[in-house]
Write a structure and sequence with these properties.
The protein has helices spanning 22-30, 57-60, 81-91, 106-120, 135-144, 161-167, 182-190, 203-211, 222-229; strands spanning 7-10, 35-42, 48-50, 94-99, 129-132, 149-154, 172-176, 194-198, 216-219. The protein is an alpha/beta fold and 230 residues long. Strand 8, helix 8 (203-211) and strand 9 (216-219) form a beta-alpha-beta unit. The structure holds SN-glycerol-3-phosphate and magnesium ion. One of its GO terms (molecular function) is phosphoric diester hydrolase activity.
Length: 230
């Protein structure tokens, strides 16, 4: 079984600080999180950066696609994956690295993420967990670096979840906590997979999900969820 914390800060501590920034990761740590989740995609020139959307517009105001922007032209405040990893080392933070490829770059992004982890991940930190909605990204990560644990991200769990997880040798399922049914939770845990849910910011909902067998809650407000589960 994967070793996961009970609570992971989503995009850092997105309820309190601009998502997926170094400041947000530090804020998550200040609010008690020991791990954060972050989204990684490639710039036009193939540099892995921390960014959720395909466009820079929502978070930076710059109306341009990440896939068409070289690293040197990124707006200030958007960290590279390597800069984020340095921050995790300084803060002692574990990480759920979500591989969030730009369209058409699924396998390449999976490969670059694990190559970067091999080169840069600090030995003193807990081993990272890879996740992705893209089976192809996880398959490429598995081929290039099988030592990094993988979880398949699924919005709504269907009957094919196990076949998909086996195809990428995943040890966990990360899913939308609001759509998770008790039946699926039991099925996944009984099959020996870890089960994580996103994005849960309500303490009572988190408690109910843990009661259903969920291992880990991914949240924008790690302090709120940690207090509720204490
Ligand atoms: O990894 C959990 C969650 O981040 C998946 O959805 O869209 O917030 O990246 P999204
Ligand atoms: Mg994400």
């Amino acid at each position: 079984m994967l070793q996961l914390p009970r609570v992971i800060g989503h995009r850092g501590a997105a309820a309190y600080s601009p998502e997926n920034t170094l400041e947000s990761f530090r804020e998550a740590r200040r609010r008690g999180a020991t791990w954060v989740e972050t989204d990684i995609k490639l710039t036009a020139d193939g540099v892995p950066i921390v960014m959720h959307d395909e466009s820079l517009k929502r978070t930076t105001g710059v109306d341009r696609l990440v896939a068409e922007t070289p690293r040197a032209e990124l707006p200030r405040g958007v960290p590279t994956f390597e800069e984020a990893i340095v921050c995790f080392g300084e803060e002692g933070l574990g990480c759920n690295v979500e591989i969030k490829p730009c369209p058409g770059r699924e396998a390449e992004t999976g490969r670059v993420v694990v190559e970067t982890l091999r080169r840069c991940w600090p030995a003193q930190l807990p081993a990272p967990l890879l996740s992705s909605f893209k089976d192809e990204s996880l398959a490429a990560a598995h081929r290039a670096a099988p030592e990094f644990a993988r979880a398949l991200l699924i919005g709504t769990i269907g009957d094919d979840w196990r076949a998909r997880a086996e195809a990428v040798a995943a040890g966990g399922i990360n899913t939308n906590g609001e759509k998770l049914t008790a039946v699926r939770a039991v099925e996944i845990r009984k099959a020996g997979y870890t089960l994580s849910v996103y994005t849960i910011d309500d303490g009572d909902v988190a408690k109910a999900l843990i009661g259903m067998g969920v291992d880990c809650v991914i949240t924008d407000a790690p302090d709120v969820i940690l207090a509720a589960l204490r």
